[in-house]
Amino acid sequence: MVRGHAISLLALALLAGACASNQDLACWPDERAGVVETLYFGTARPGGAVTRDEWNAFLRGTVTPLFPDGLTSWEAQGQWRAPNGAIEREASYVLSIAHAPGETDELAVQTIMRKYQEEFRQNAVLRVRSRGCLSLGHA
Predict the structure, then answer these.
(1) Count of domains in the chain?
(2) What is the domain extent for residue 13?
């Protein structure tokens, strides 16, 4: 299971660095300011693990309705230091979403995190949020 305090420290360090380096970010004329979310979902849970089919159903039923314009997800392997000092490893899923800044999308991301924790009995979902310049390249 993902440990809340380890995730909190990692997220805080990543966000502090991202905030410091992105303050002067200026987008090109064909770009727009946006937010890039990267969410990390552990799969270990009491009695087993979240399956690929369960993850895909979660994407279809929860994530896609909140972000129908697009997203990217992939499978990964995660690890963290447990309170007893041991390195814990587990399969995970990563979700990347780019969107305009604003309260509606912020609440949507929070909803995704909360629903995953509830549905799959997770302690936490790691969130890394950064500012970026968004554009669609057309040939």
Answers:
(1) 1
(2) 4-134
